[in-house]
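ESCALATION

Customer reports they have been waiting on this structure for their group meeting. Please prioritize. Original submission:
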Amino acid sequence: MKKLVYRQPITASHMYVRDPEIKRLLSSDLFEFMNEAYKWIGGFKSFTGEDDFADRSYLWYITYEGPLPENEKDIDINKVYTVSVYKKKYGLKLVGIGNNRFENVPKSERMELKSRAKDALADHIEFAVRKGWAEVSGAAEKMFKLVLSPKWIIDPEDLKLYIPEYEDIEILPDNIHYSRKLSNGMEVTKVAYGTIRI
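Update from on-call: job pushed to the front of the queue and completed.
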């Protein structure tokens, strides 16, 4: 049986958004939140803008400081710890995960809030592999490796076998990483975690 690495749970509210109207209501703030999280690579490139983000994503998982307001329009983006975004592709595929850096709060509060956001990020990683799968590299791969047992790694041979657009991936000598071309022609090296649905 696959085991998750034990951590202390955090106290927060959780929101799972699939409703198109709620997505439209929150898309501007959350797309900006994700762009900020991905600014080190030029922004959140999984979607072309907030409308595309609302229309083509399948699920948003949001962890929020304190109780959720009764009305979604009252959600304070500054209280969001972590957001993860999924498409429906061979199960739930994680296509983006962002953490609040709390750069606009007083220094005295920032360390505690960032610590909570880090725990929320670990919760989101665990959710991603229990409910679906993710391809990661770079900083994201380091976080997944820190949070998860190696048993959650998907054998790249399974990706080749069951997902048609992965037939041409090149499996690297460690039999964990693989390289593939993105739709823009760029070659990337990835490792996949979680469970694909066939």
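Sent to customer with the following note: Residues 4-10 have pLDDT under 50 and may be disordered.
Escalation resolved.
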